[in-house]
Amino acid sequence: MTTALNPKFAFETFVVGAANRLAVTAGRTVAENPGSAYNPLFIYSGSGLGKTHLLMAIGHQAKKVAPGLAIEYLTLDEFVESFHAAIAAGQGDAFRRRFQGVDVLLVDDVQFLTNRKEMQAELLRLTETLQQAGHQIVLTSDRPPSEIADLDERLISRFSGGLVVDIGVPDYETRVAILRRKAEERAAGFQPGVLETVAGAEFENVRELMGALNRLIAFQAVNDQPVNAEAVKQVLGLSAPARGAAPEAAAGAVPAPDEFSQFLTDVSVTVGKAVEAWRARLAEAILRWEGEGYRTKRLEALLDQEAHAGVDEQIAAFGKDVERLKELAAEVQALDPQAAGQSVFRDPERLAEAESVATNVREGAAPPSAPSPAFPLASFAVGPSNEVAVSAVRAAIAQPGKKYNPLVLVGKSGLGKTHLLHALGLELAKKPKAVVACLSTQDFIAELIAAIDGDRVDWWRARYRRATALLLDDIHLLVGKERTQEELFNLFNLLADQERQLVFTAPADPHGLEGLEERIRTRLGGGLVAELAEPDRAVRRAVLARQLELEKIPVEDALLDYLADRPADSVRSVGALLQRVVTGAAAQGQPVTAGLAREILEGQPTRGERRTSGFRTSGIVVSTAGGVRSREKMVWDWPDAADRVMEDLR
Amino acid sequence: MSLVNFTTREITCKIVYYGPGRSGKTTNLHYVYQRVPDQRRGRMVSLATQTDRTLFFDFLPIDLGQISGFTTRFQLYTVPGQVYYNATRRLVLQGADGVVFVGDSQARQLDENLESLQNLQSNLLEHGIDIRTMPLVLQYNKQDLPRELVLTPPELDDALNFRSVPSFPADALHGSGVFETLKGISELVLKRLAAGSAV
């Protein structure tokens, strides 16, 4: 019975111009404050200028503002019909009650009240009731109340008591705007000047304007070819005679709105016909990519060819290449903004180059520090004191990342942790596609600081994220380096998840490393902590033998045995011991022998140097001043008591 | 000059306005100049004597922007109409893609029109061009003058348009027929793109 509100007719879709601004403003006000602003609101206008649209828009808006409102839209005919039906059914009261409960009553086309006395009386009663209850009434008509023939005086005064507004014929600009919006709604594209020409035709109302637009859309669809401004006039029958002779006479004074635009349109059509379609597509593609800053040499070359074979494929391929370049550039941008500025990322001809640049950047322009070749595993002296660590290292080499991850090598300074670390790194690096990052924690920190400074932390991270193994020497140096700990934490998790080998060295068990974040300490302790003890005799002997070999000194068992028997708390001090013997021998111009070594190390104090007082125990000279003057014991570390006893007994 | 250059993706049309002295060639260009938006037109070069007669030639470049991916430019030239500037006329004709013959509709100027047409033909021949192969339109200017002074377009067609090329009545001073003429010649010229006679 009651027409539903058409959702297309809302304020949003209503094109406002000078001719209808007042009506729209009044409509909005009423919709937002029903019953309080203008009651009733009476809108009149010629046919097809938007009365119904505006009326429904008020309904929508009122509903939007206050969803609980009862809103009734109906045409007067519907109103009359339902009234008659109600009377016929003997339900006149029900009819009245129904409308008395409405919060916003929207009645369209009330001009049809003419000659309907009983309806006028009914509407008058309803209007009074609704007004008293503060309910909104909006009416539309094709003429003002006073011009509706045979309308009850009381109704006229009541209708005029609120606000009476009219909607005029839209001006040229509004017509263009309406046409544009409608064309947009229908996704119809027109050549420049076409809609303007239609708008210039002075249709009497919007409905006719829409009709014209529909005709154009249909014409374009049928002919599969855009209409130009000139053809519009023919399609719509707007040719010169329709306008009469007047424009002809005035042509000199008032030139057509835009002769140049029309000319441009015409030329475009002509060129469009003349240039082969494939060339036009090609040229447009070039223009587009050029506009985006890409080199289009490849496509330009195609323009010169005669045939169009494969052109579309080429354009598509080019577009694909550009997309790839964009991807690469975006990726590189994230890692290394400087590298992303390179011109290779703008030239599809150099896509391969761009790929390799991206690869380089991705992998870090400089790969992470590799293990030093100076520390091969073969040269690492193995003995009972370090065999646990060495076997752990061998296990890590055999199954990197799987067995002991992380592996933490713990021991005092000079026991060969660094050697073992690099040896492990070297072995891991021999594996296919291995990227072994092996460096001191100090360098690791320094690199991060440089990356932060150069605003390329991402790049720095990327370098390490591709590592198949990360080996950090002296992990305790992370103490107090919060940012590096943070980065290492993330890197650790990432690499560990991918079963990549992590190896660290530390002077003591990681649990005892003060100042290291708990999350790192627990992670370090989560794998295997292998300790390197002070070198045992076997280790010392092996180290000495290798050193002698390096010094090209004939290896005598007696010498080896003697030196290996000397106490040493670290591999490094063993080396130093030998060094002293070698330099001493060189100074005396004698070959290195066990005897000479003993002389040098244990001291044959010269006569002049003999103390007048003091006594000599094995290797120890106590001076009168109470100082220890033995050259050996003075300069180097004291062996522990047990060793000394052994030595004394020897 | 080639009409279309695929390498640089340019279409350049050189159109020469030809005709007897005082027939309204420069007026045509002026009207076009006024209608072209600033950013689309180059500076109009006009070399005129003190009495506004074209001494050398007028030149009006128009940039139509990108059409089908091609940078499209029109270059409009006029020639000096007076008989004694024939060398200039011949020079300007060089490389023309199309010719607009601007005729004077006044009955008493008919002979001048004929003479100028013949001059056009012979000057084109000097460049080795047969006038029948050159895109050509006729414009019958000054149709705004009193009826008794001018010939009607059909009469002028009979007298001048031997080859039945497109012809346009015009009033260049007020602009009617100016763009129609330009559009006419443009279509003829640009059709040659498709015919493949360009490049």
Mean pLDDT of chain B: 87
Please give the largest β-sheet of chain B: 8 strands, mixed
SSE order of chain B, as H and E? EEHEEEHEHEHEH
What's the N-to-C terminus distance of chain B? 9 Å
SS-derived structural category of chain B: alpha/beta
Give the oligomeric state of the chains in this entry, treating copies of one chain as homo and distinct chains as hetero: heterodimer
Q: Going by CATH, what is the homologous superfamily of the largest domain in chain A?
A: P-loop containing nucleotide triphosphate hydrolases
Query: What is the CATH C level class of chain B, in words?
Result: Alpha Beta
Provide the low-confidence segments of chain B as ranges.
none
Radius of gyration of chain B: 16 Å
The percentage of residues in β strands of chain B lies in 25-35%
Mean pLDDT of chain A: 80
Question: Can you describe this structure in just a few lines?
Answer:
Chain A contains 30 helices and twelve strands.
Explain this structure to me?
Chain A has 650 residues and is α/β, with parallel strands linked by helices. Chain A folds into 5 domains: 11-167, P-loop containing nucleotide triphosphate hydrolases (Rossmann fold); 172-241, Helicase, Ruva Protein, domain 3 (Orthogonal Bundle), CATH 1.10.8; 279-362, no CATH class; 377-532, 3-Layer(aba) Sandwich (Rossmann fold); 537-649, Helicase, Ruva Protein, domain 3 (Orthogonal Bundle), CATH 1.10.8. Helices cover 53% and strands 9% of the residues of chain A. Chain A has 30 helices and 12 strands. In chain A, the strands form 3 sheets. In chain A, strands 2-3-4-1-5 form a 5-stranded parallel β-sheet, sandwiched between helices. A 5-stranded parallel β-sheet of chain A has the order 7-8-9-6-10, sandwiched between helices. In chain A, helix 19 (387-398) packs parallel to helix 20, helix 21 packs antiparallel against helix 22 and helix 27 packs across helix 28. In chain A, 36% of the residues are buried. With 199 residues, chain B is an alpha/beta fold. Chain B has one domain: P-loop containing nucleotide triphosphate hydrolases (Rossmann fold). Helix content of chain B is 31%, strand content 27%. Chain B has 5 helices and 8 strands; from the N terminus they run ββαβββαβαβαβα. Chain B has helices at 25-35, 86-93, 110-126, 153-160, 178-195, and strands at residues 4-5, 10-18, 45-48, 54-67, 70-78, 98-104, 136-141, 167-169. In chain B, strands 1, 2, 3, 4, 5, 6, 7 and 8 form an 8-stranded mixed β-sheet that branches. In chain B, strand 3 (45-48) and strand 4 form a beta hairpin. The radius of gyration of chain B is 16 Å and the shape is globular. The chains are: A alpha/beta (650), B alpha/beta (199). Chains A and B meet through helix 13 and helix 14 of A and strand 4 and helix 5 of B.
